[in-house]
Specification:
The protein is an all-alpha fold. It contains ten helices and no strands.
């Protein structure tokens, strides 16, 4: 999809597609997510999208300048889905926990799209709303602005990093997923205690725990670390951040 800018007032396509639907940004994004789930990154082409939508591929330029703009819209859609159903409770830990788990679940449910989009910054409405929401939770909890920003950065990066890793595993063919799971029993389960005493001692727990994502526990660890840095609580206070709380990273 090459760069081509269509004036804002000319973007709306009134004539229905061959399937009888009126083309819209929402329809294009939903169709693109479905195609990416089936075919991966190669699905993001005007030819494939046009065929799936029953529309002339050139009509897509009325909504997206190029495939990168479409990819950013897909990324923003995943962020939006992560926020669906979320309502604030006033408990900052509970609210951040729910947001983090929502991000993780959204990307895991769309693994192929997550591989393409988890690392992108969209600047679109769902993302800006998420940034505003998370910073608001932190500031209302009492974190000063510089620390709130650093915690926001770590919190979001943790959620996206785990989401991308778990999505990559889920995007593997079924036989590869099964082979990876078997390694824990076929290799680690057979390591002798005289050469690998720690693995042998912890193997039953290790094999069980490695079946699931490490994110929920990692999130709890992060929330505990946040609480320890909240001004007026614990021994560490707001000043211990592994570096200055002022300035950019």
């Amino acid at each position: 999809m090459a760069d081509r800018v269509i004036p804002e007032g000319q973007r709306r396509r009134r004539r229905p597609t061959k399937q009888g639907a009126v083309l819209s940004e929402r329809l294009i994004v939903d169709t693109a997510l479905r195609l990416v789930a089936q075919h991966g990154a190669e699905a993001l082409s005007v030819r494939r999208l046009g065929a799936a939508l029953g529309a002339d591929p050139s009509a897509l330029y009325r909504y997206f300048r190029n495939t990168d703009a479409l990819l950013l819209a897909l990324a923003d859609e995943l962020i939006g889905r992560a926020q669906e159903g979320w309502t604030p409770t006033g408990d900052w830990r509970a609210d951040l926990r729910a947001i983090g788990l929502g991000i993780h679940a959204s990307y895991r449910s769309n693994p192929q799209a997550a591989l393409l989009a988890a690392h992108r910054t969209t600047g679109r409405p769902h993302e800006t709303r998420a940034v505003e929401t998370i910073l608001g939770i932190l500031r209302r909890a009492g974190f000063p602005n510089p620390l709130a920003v650093r915690i926001y950065h770590a919190f979001v990066d943790q959620a996206l990093a785990f989401a991308a890793q778990d999505a990559a595993a889920l995007a593997l063919p079924a036989n590869a997923q099964e082979a990876d799971a078997e390694v824990w029993h076929e290799v680690y389960g057979k390591l002798p205690p005289d050469t690998h005493p720690n693995i042998a001692a912890a193997f039953s727990s290790l094999a069980a725990d490695m079946r699931d994502s490490g994110y929920p526990f990692a999130l709890e660890l992060m929330l505990e670390a946040m609480a320890a840095r909240l001004p007026g609580t614990g021994d560490r206070g707001a000043g211990s951040t592994g570096g200055s709380d002022h300035g950019d990273r």
